Structures are given as C-alpha cells and as structure tokens.
Amino acid sequence: MTMNKPADLLRRLDEIGRSLAQRKTAQALIGLGSVGRETERLDDYSDLDFFAIVAAGTKSHYLDDLAWLSDVAPIAFRFRNTADGYKLLFDDGIFCEFAVFELAELATIPFAEGRIVWKADDVSDTIAVPQRSVGAGERSAEFHLGEALTNLYVGLMREQRGETMSALRFIQTYAVDHLLRLAELSTEAPLGDRFDPARRVERRRPQLAALLPTMLQGYGQNRASARAILHYLAANFDINPAMQREILDLCDVDAANG
User: Fold this and answer.
1) SS3 249
2) Which helix (H) or strand (E) covers residue 50, if one does?
3) Which residues, including other chains, have CB under 8 Å from residue 122's CB and lie 6 or more apart?
4) pLDDT for 104-127, tens place per residue?
C-alpha cells in the first residue's frame, strides 16, 4: 500500500488544475471533502475527491479521453463507477474519485461546499457553492427515528424468515445509520459527513462510538444488535411503545420456532 502525504495530494490536485487550464473547454476544478474546504482533515490515508467542470457539449469528451489526467501522471487503474465519473489510481499510488459536469448540470447536483482549485476567468467565484442542498442531512428527527424503528422491525422479521444477510443490513447498517443521524440532530455540534454519517464518528462522538460494538455484533447476532440499538433509542428519544413492544418480542423469539 502506498501512502501519500497531504502535500503530495494537494500538489497533484493543483497539477490537475493546471492541466485543465490548458484546455479551452475546461471551466473549473473543485476540490471536495478533505481536499476541499476541510484540508485540516488531510492525512496519509486521504484521497482526492473533485469535480471537473467543462463547457456545454464537451462532457463526454472529458469522460472518454482522460488525457487531462494521464498528462499529469501515468494511470495504473481506472473504473467508471457512475455515468458522470471514475474511481482512479495513479501509478504513484494517489487514488481519486471524481465526476465531470457541465456548468448547467451543477445546479441540480447536491454536494457539500467545495474549494475552487482552478477556474477560468469568466467563471463565477460561487461555482463551488451548491445550489441544491444535500437532502439526507436535512431530514427531521422524526423521520430518522421512524426509519430506525421500522428498519429494526423489518430486519427482525427477515431474520425470522431465515434471511440473515438481509436482516443484518436492515439492523446493523440502515438502522444504525439513522441512529447516527439522530445523534447529530440531538446535539449542537456541527454535522459530520452529510453523505455518510459513519465518517469520523469515533473522533466526533466517542461516547456513542463506545456503544457501537454492542449494536454491530455481526452475522448471526442480529437480535442482540437490534436489542442494543433499541435500548439506545429508548434511552435518548421518545419512541412509540407499540413499536418498542413489537421489536422486543421479535428480539426474544427463538429462531428455531420462526
């Protein structure tokens, strides 16, 4: 595994910006996440997240021909993971995840505010500010609590059916994600990653993180995990007693009788 110093990552992003600047139809490069407005989070395990903004009608060219990246450094691996972009590994071990958008598209894309690495002179200074908010981070506490409880219920029902893997996802992934959102909404601390509530939870919420092993006990431990999640929810939020009883009853069911 190749580790890259924060300075190397920022240097590479600047190099990509200079590469785009040499192309007449490129308009901007926006750094996101730890190479965006949160560079204080950069460490040896970070990667590059960015948007390349290009002129109308040229998006497919920048996606089909990655010379604007390979001119910077040799590419060892690339994988087109969405219609808009790639996950890519440079030969020197720098990993990046990026998307290419035309300016008009950017108005419809939810993203956390980024940092302008480079832009053409006629591009607005506000290009890195999203016009559409990230919906997942703006749901109400009632929504996340309802989702967490019903995820537990559905997961436990699937456990009864013998669908242990599906049950694990509902209980130990979906319900826990909503629990993490609830924890953020219940404090005045700044929201974490608006796309992934699990990011940096160990540093931001150590008391909750200390309880996670009881909620994430793994395959074959769905009932025990669900009970721990329900206990946390009941201790910290006003939960519906009927749903609480149903979930507890399912936690107590002997799998052999399901």
Assistant:
1) helix
2) strand 48-54
3) none
4) 998 888 888 899 999 999 999 999
Token duo for residue 170: 């509902």
**And the tokens for 39?**
């560079």
Q: What is the pTM of this model?
A: 0.69
Structural domain boundaries in the chain? 6-119, 135-257
Residue-level length of the chain: 258
Report the amino acid identity of residue 72. V
Alpha helices in the chain (DSSP H): 6-21, 59-64, 67-70, 103-106, 141-160, 164-168, 176-185, 201-204, 206-209, 212-215, 222-236, 241-252
Report the candidate in 44, 62, 52 with the shortest Cα–Cα distance to residue 13: 52
Distance CA 63, CA 187 (A): 42
Average of per-residue pLDDT values in the chain: 87
Contact assessment for residue 44 and residue 3, using Cβ atoms and an 8 Å cutoff = yes
CB 155 within 8 A of CB 167: yes
Q: How far apart are CA 214 and CA 115, in angstroms?
A: 38
CA 240 to chain CA mean position, Å: 30
Residue 132's pLDDT is: 66
List of residues 6+ apart from 218 with CB closer than 8 A: 168, 172, 225
Pairing of strands 115-119, 95-102: unpaired
Distance between CA atoms of 13 and 71, rounded to whole angstroms? 13
For 6-119, which CATH class? alpha beta
